[in-house]
Design brief:
2 copies of one chain form a homodimer. By secondary structure, chain A is an alpha/beta fold. Chain A has 3 domains: 4-258, 3-Layer(aba) Sandwich (Rossmann fold); 278-401, Isoleucyl-tRNA Synthetase, Domain 1, CATH 1.10.730; 418-465. Helices cover 46% and strands 15% of the residues of chain A. Chain A is built from 15 helices and 15 strands. Chain A has helices at 39-57, 73-82, 86-103, 119-131, 160-166, 205-217, 231-246, 278-285, 287-295, 307-322, 338-356, 361-380, 386-401, 418-433, 437-449, and strands at residues 4-7, 12-15, 23-28, 61-66, 135-138, 141-144, 181-186, 201-203, 221-227, 252-258, 261-263, 266-267, 303-305, 452-457, 460-465. A 4-stranded parallel sheet of chain A has the order 4-3-9-10, with helices on both faces. In chain A, strand 3, helix 1 (39-57) and strand 4 (61-66) form a beta-alpha-beta unit. At the A-B interface, helix 3, helix 13, helix 14 and helix 15 of A face helix 3, helix 13, helix 15 and helix 16 of B.
Chain lengths: 466, 466
């Protein structure tokens, strides 16, 4: 069987043949780091994690690059609101993002280039585009000249007229064409900026992914992934920038886009305040349940987040784990294992068939469930021994290809101490305000007995543990 | 660079060239399951886990088979002592073993054949040996005829005379040669037994590994692993059985043996009661610390278990983790990352050099530590951003090749809530005794806000969580 992937560029499922035998050059658009990751991010990165894991299972050496957009309008605005340097704001959310991805069991990319640290390469790319006639400077900005790219629109399958009709483009009379987009933006007062041949400024959003993909993966890569909302204009512009610069086509052999996450029927969006953070979901349901929720639907489909669907996913992940319960100690070695072993082989091959069909994780989970059912039935029938372990091992191995840990959740059994320590600290302060010194000291001592020390200062009381 | 492995058979480090390009057929002797695993088991399986992981990192498809000896004198004795059916006793310890290996992050074998479930294949192998003149039945037993194998002694590098002088062989006048060993043992009263051409009985210990290796990996395999104590007689006998049956030489291309674990200078042994269970060590130090202890010495060396060495290993594992602490939020993008990136590349190549040199994990850890030091220094120097993440990613990736999880131990990082809830419950009672109803209710409400409900009764107050 051959792996086939749906390519947004050709609108077809195509046989997957990477440019270099056995290697896959893989770029996934990373987040703009001005806030905590939401479940839409979680969905996209889990989907591409399963894709990468399956490629590795198929024996490919995958080289995975994913950017952090750490210079951007929203970042500058948020940093100003919070009175925090933009670099600290982005550093904070980058660390938070990686910690959450680790918790989600999303494999780390091999490289995470930051927009702010690739400025030289971005500037060189823009210079090249100007020299080739694909871009023009304008009052300290630089714009891409869409008319110069005969293929512009190839990914979103629209021509310039359709785009203009569909997009709410701000009319800027200075630009040669309304769809021309900024490669470089001249510095405004108080914004981060870098020197350039066009004066101080910062890169536009689209150019960074071209610069990083070209620099770290080469002029032509195999897979570029991201959410459907990035097809236009982000990825369309990326292709235009990269192909005009290198004059190589195609820049990306296979474009893969995940469907978007909706909240109870509504698209999740920061502008409507309609957001659930990944943190909340990880704390409430755990990584395996969220992953199950994502992978129980095909990655190209839109996905609707509801309490019910997460409850169902929690049960689904528990169901997978249920296969790992040991056989009965008094198993009967004479119970026939033929059916179980047949199901194991069926599941093994159907799993690969499903994943070979454009990473159909929903179908892959369905066949895994057939094996889970067969194992649980076999256990009830008194089966045990080597065939039982082999079938369990198959569930474990295939679950890991999808990125499940199958470990029981520790979070359910242990409450964190911090909220209770906070209550005690507050209470002690009130007791002191009421001059109940003995009780207040008793609280302090009880906390000390648990390794929590208090520090009083005019601003209040802080606590720390050893 | 080529991978070189020390081969007990040739007493040389040899270039590793598997029989089939890209594939490694890998057999590791599994435990006799009559008791909980001890740290000696942990050491051996961690060592071979690191070996398998490195082979996979090198791009080999490893097929790993590991037996469970679930029919054996010690099992029969222990089951009788405990008044438990032998199958239940072994099932219990098999499940315990796998759970502990999972906790240790030892990858599961692809197949775990049980001696008791391979009897047909064992009998067929013994029959073949009799037909070829390499074995003879004797009063319901069957013995291997060591004189029939001109190569006998090839692994332990001894001849029959040396062996006899060295071993305390029970004199059994019926046997043709004192070193002839049992392939089949006739049934004694109350022992598990199976029918055979020689009457009811059970397999000897050595024959099962030959039968399983031949059945599941083929007539000639690449690597066979186990502890040094298995070289003679177990592995010597396995070679004799397998090569005489198939007439193929060598049965195993590379024989790898780990040094033994000693307790404070003494060899750990069940007969002297000198034992520490793996469970105890996992509970006290955690999986990463124990793994560090094992891998900080070369697998062929003997290893001494002391409290101090485990304390040091705990620090070592923490050291590795320390590299993963985030950069400062106010990192300085102008700090030069050249040295860090150089160290990253040096470590990457030195790591491979070390592991290519007969899996020198101690050396691999040393070069990883150089990178950890460079990362921690860079963090102190204000470095952050993409180079920092890249260096951290290298530590993470190489640590995982060695099987470390690098996750903080949950017990150490998070304080449990219970002691603080207890303090609050007690305090509320005192407030009520002092008739400070408002404050007492405030405590109750604050607890309720954290999902903790109180129940007052004449015996006192109990609390529970949702």
């Amino acid at each position: 069987m051959a792996l086939r992937v749906y390519n947004t560029l050709t609108r077809k499922k195509e046989r997957f043949v990477p440019r270099e035998k056995g290697r896959v050059f893989f770029y996934v658009c990373g987040p703009t780091v001005y806030d905590s990751a939401h479940i839409g991010h979680g969905m996209s990165y889990v989907a591409f994690d399963a894709i990468r894991r399956y490629l590795e299972y198929r024996g490919y050496h995958v080289r995975h690059v994913q950017n952090f957009t750490d210079v951007e309008d929203k970042i500058i605005r948020r940093a100003a609101e919070q009175g925090m340097p933009w670099r600290e704001l982005t550093a904070k959310y980058i660390h938070e993002f990686l910690a959450e991805m680790d918790e989600l069991n999303v494999q780390r990319a091999h490289l995470y280039p930051f927009a702010s640290q690739e400025i030289d390469h971005i500037v060189r790319l823009i210079q090249g585009l100007i020299e080739k006639g694909n871009a023009y400077p304008l009052d300290g900005d630089v714009y891409f000249r869409v008319k110069s790219d005969a293929r512009y629109g190839q990914l979103s399958h629209r021509n310039l007229e359709d785009m203009q009709a569909g997009a709410r483009v701000e009319i800027d009379e200075r630009k040669e064409h309304p769809m021309d987009f900024a490669l470089w933006k001249s510095a405004k007062q108080g914004e981060p900026s870098w020197d350039s041949p066009w004066g101080p400024g910062r890169p536009g959003w689209h150019i960074e992914c071209s610069a990083m993909s070209l620099r770290y993966l080469g002029e032509q890569i195999d897979i570029h992934g991201g959410g459907r909302d990035l097809i236009f204009p982000h990825h369309e512009n990326e292709i235009a920038q990269s192909e005009c610069f290198t004059t190589q086509h195609p820049f990306v052999k296979y474009w893969l886009h995940n469907g978007l996450l909706q909240l109870g029927g509504e698209k999740m969006s920061k502008s409507t305040g309609n957001l659930i953070t990944l943190r909340e979901v990880l704390d409430t349901y755990g990584a395996d349940a969220f992953r199950f929720f994502v992978l129980s639907s095909h990655y190209r489909r839109p996905l609707t987040f509801t309490e019910d669907s997460l409850q169902a996913a929690t049960k689904g992940a528990e169901r997978l784990r249920s296969a790992m319960r040991p056989a009965r100690l008094d198993y009967d070695p004479d119970v026939d294992a033929t059916l179980l072993l047949q199901q194991m082989e069926t599941t093994q091959s159907q799993f690969e068939e499903a994943m070979d069909d454009d990473f159909n994780t929903a179908q892959a989970l369905a066949t895994l469930f057939d094996l889970v059912r067969a194992i649980n039935q076999a256990r009830d029938d008194g089966l045990g021994g080597e065939a039982f372990l082999q079938a369990q091992g198959t569930v474990l191995a295939l679950s890991r290809v999808l990125g499940f840990r199958l470990a029981p959740r520790p979070a359910q059994s242990s409450l964190g101490a911090s909220p209770f320590i906070e209550i005690l600290v507050k209470l002690r302060r009130e007791l002191r305000d009421n001059k109940q010194w003995a009780l207040a000291d008793q609280v302090r001592d009880a906390l000390a007995g648990q390794g929590v020390t208090l520090e009083d200062s005019p601003e209040g009381t802080s606590w720390h543990t050893k």
